């Protein structure tokens, strides 16, 4: 029997994850007290309906009962039940925004600041996160992207890394992204802005891309950039990093940065990394 425990930060997407698991054939239960995990697993195993794919959501909504999680996992192991833990995470900034948009209160801080509740929750979930088999950082993921990742893991059986890579193009005149881990300046490359027939287009247009990529310095830079990123990624994964933001900047964020970001995105996508792309200033 395939037994999956979905947990993680409030607002990180556990409800959406459960819906996806239902869509791919899992019998799902939300907010099951961890103390009941062994009994529930036994019932599913003995079910005449032959339930062989089960997913349950267990999180801090269970209050003091959540403290029973590790004890219940030990019982499952002693009883011979194999399980996987899917942990959903996101940045504090994004989680706070989601709470405000839905006007929800954080379960650990119903009358206080959301950030205080998140801080307390991260501390309570610290050890569970370490034990997780799969971690998905939903900071920059759409519902569709989350669905794709879950399908890869539990339907297609692909081994996916816990790192989500965000490629971001931007214009320096609009400000450097505050959440960038790596920033690369491509303002040294020839600028299509000064070519009249290219000025109004963006790096998403084939004509602009061909112009930018036609120069020797561009080809050399892209080769070295890709080599560096592919060198760094395994070490970020080994370190346990789950969100890597790579920012590519030019003057306005419309031509060169968009082109280079697209090339890097395509390279990482081919290697089946979990990668997303955003052209922040492309339409400005």
From TrEMBL:
Residues 164-282 form the RapZ C-terminal domain. InterPro entries: P-loop_NTPase (IPR027417), RapZ-like (IPR005337), RapZ-like_N (IPR053930), RapZ_C (IPR053931). Keywords: ATP-binding, GTP-binding, Nucleotide-binding. GTP binds at residues 59-62. Coiled coil: none annotated. Residues 1-155 form the RapZ-like N-terminal domain. One of its GO terms (molecular function) is GTP binding. The keyword Nucleotide-binding applies. ATP binds at residues 8-15. It holds the Pfam family PapZ_C. NCBIfam families: PRK05416.1. PANTHER family: RNASE ADAPTER PROTEIN RAPZ. This is RNase adaptor protein RapZ. It comes from Thermohalobacter berrensis.
